[in-house]
Amino acid sequence: MRKTIFVAIAGLFAACSTPDTISFAAPDPAATIEEIYVVTQQNVALGRDAFRSDRSTVARRARLSVSIPPSHELGQIAWPDGPTDPLTDFAVVDFTLLDDDVALERAIAAAEGDTVFLFVHGYNTTSSEALYRFAQIAHDFDLPDTRLMFSWASAGVPGAYVYDRDSVLFARDDLVALLTDIARKTDKTINVMAHSMGAMLTMEAMRQLAISDNRDVLRRIESTTFLSPDLDPDIFRAQANAVGELPQPFVILHSQTDRALRLSSLLSGGRERVGGISSAADVDGMNVTFIDITNLRDGSSLDHMVAFTSPVAITVLRQMIEQDALRETELTQFLVLNSDGSILAN
Which of 159, 233, 298, 319 has the fewest CB atoms lying closer than 10 Å? Predict the structure, then answer.
């Protein structure tokens, strides 16, 4: 029976899988270029079971330029089907390895603007999918200033849920070090956007900063957005209590029709996930704003990527980024819950 459940879950999660291919091409003037800095713990898998030893003890850094084709559709990644064509496909058109933390710090410090947008990807995400997804987000959300992605060692394999949960713990120190370097060695503030299991990693990093009395780093985090967070509500509350004053605004987009989180709940003994809560009591007393995107389901990726793929959700997040506040953002088409669970808009 247990084996049958596992096979069913793996088969359903396989619907979320994407090619693990970074395609290189010469730039085309008709395409849009998104520059992204990357800190990654991921290695390239060389065999079917290579993910089991795929965690790197040394994080690597790079600057990549990702080309977005003029035919791009909002919320979508255009994977190449055959030879890469920058007029129709996502492609990497420039790649520069950075030698060490100092090189990354100097590059970020010298970049235009005063904000770093940090993206932390979720479960079952390959390095190429994480890169292209963040390029799509940067383009569709019109992210200003510096874009930085922390790519932790997800196996990128549907059946490796427990492995990925362990990888989150493995990644804490590197993410804490990255946040500390940005906060103390550049003049930038930090806006964090985390998806799925990446939200658990982000909260673990913030908790670690708090309990090690590095609150000066926490104060440099200007805002936090969690998209479909795969995180137990009790653990989230305990983490938030340890952090104390959460960065504001602290926004969570959740959906009760997220089938990936339902499966995660099944794997976690039936416990609801923060990204799919059904009761406002789960967030009572927390200084967090929940935006319910249940009605925006699109049927793809088990409705776990709606915050990235729905034009409506993208528009709202873009407004929030542009206005740097919730009070001026058009939210009347959503159910919005504040920290005491009351309805702000419907």
Answer: 298
